[in-house]
Amino acid sequence: MKFEEIGLREEFLRAVKELGFEELTPIQEKCLPLIREGKDVIGQSATGSGKTAAFGLPILEKISPGSGIQALILTPTRELCVQVADSLADFSKHTKTKITRVYGGVSINPQRDELRSADIVVGTPGRILDHMRSRTIKLDRVKFFVLDETDRMCDMGFYDDVESITRAVPKERQTLLFSATITRDVDRLVGRYLNSPLTIKTESYVDASLLEQVYYDVSVTEKFGVLVHLLKENSTGLSLIFCGTRREADVVAKNLRKLGLDAMAIHGGLTQSRRMHALDSLKKEHIDILVATDVAARGLDITGVNFVYNWDVPKTPEEYIHRIGRTARAGKEGKAITLLSPRDHLNFREVLRNSSLNIRNEQTPPAEQIAIQRHFGRDSEHSRGGRPDFQRRDHGKGYGQRGHRPGFGNYGRSEGGSHGRGTAHARPSGYGEPPARTGSAHEPSGNDNFSRDISAPSRGFRGRGFGGSQGRGGYRGGGRGGFGPRRPGGFGRPGGAGRPSRDGGSHGGYSRGGREGGHGGSDRADKGRGGSRGRKPGGSRFGGKGRGPGRFEGEE
């Protein structure tokens, strides 16, 4: 059936033609008349079957622009939210209907402003609830309530959120629920919140006669090499690689990029901007390999997929069908390839038992001699890493402070042997690079897990301990100085002492030229200011105003 035959309003028919749509898909042909009649509908169809137009067009026809939020559409992911909102905007571009998309991962303030004038809201459950709690969304005029990819929302743990939102929507409404499968949670929602619904079930949108399904038995070590060989051999069109976890998706994508292949990962662990960048790159054909998890790919209408690769085997036949349903569409051929390592046989056995699937076992192609890298350095593209100013020292063990550190002016550094005393060099402010320093190794002190080579140079802090490594509860000073007993007590910032102990007061050796009257830590619970413990002229063992430069002598 063609769109001209269903009696669409002129502005919507013109938009549909401009988008290149001529004939209705099975789900559209069956759902459109029922939704127009005001019936509650359950639609079972796969992603890419055209269900957005199936519920979107009849809703748009009944919207009165400028009359408040009249339709609320829930989606499981941000990407699907954007995709549905964009499709509705395309259908309504010749009208004044305002569609607002609401999802997490971005600032909530611009969404509050847009919600004031929205006619249709497309959003994820979590962010919709945020707006409900802050009372920035008004649902009292909602006439159409749509649950898209409902089974996926329940799988992701949104069941309670969906229930809360459903109860907040007026009871006098039309509810449309779309789900690839009817799970127990979905069935519970149907029983509680839909009014005598009509179920529409369509066959898979995939043309089985055009889909080739094969699997290869591979060892764990040659698995990546086989994948690379297949990607190079099947280089035409878009390839979609499914992985079981976020980390695995990142690992595969990074290794493919290292080989010069245009690959990008998409999963729920990426920031919103990176996920949208991946989809935008896909649309603009900047990449031809997308590595995805099932959750991230679910609901995304990715067209033009020639090859689907199962890097990790799906756990159920239903998940396998969802994956391979991305290819062999719209009269085009497609191929689904599964890489089966020995540990995957148990899960894949369930898939093979499905008599409707025609999966062949073929001879394994030659593997590229490439080992997959699973650990990447701090400069890795997506590595969170540490703070950039904390880098491994050129000499010695552990990490040192690099660059300026605000708030610690007039502090010098001292460097001696790995646990010994050294000479401090005062600098005006900050933590710039220290001048050359020398020192000699003395007896070890502190935690040797941090520094085992006692001949390696070490960096200390003038006025904050004296070289050496980190001991239990703080930093030791050089030589015998620096480490105080672990006991509860006041916490003072050390002047000529070591770093504070975890449990209270701090102790440490002194460096020459220590800060005059510094904030010395005390080893008594009721004292917290003054010179630190030790033989420092003018210093006080138990608080008080210690004055005069300190001289490193060690403790007791």
TrEMBL record:
The keyword Nucleotide-binding applies. CDD domains: DEADc (cd00268), SF2_C_DEAD (cd18787). GO terms for cellular component: cytosol. One of its GO terms (molecular function) is RNA helicase activity. Residues 1-29 form the DEAD-box RNA helicase Q domain. It holds the Pfam family Helicase_C. Keywords: ATP-binding, Helicase, Hydrolase, Nucleotide-binding. This is DEAD/DEAH box helicase. It comes from Candidatus Iainarchaeum sp.
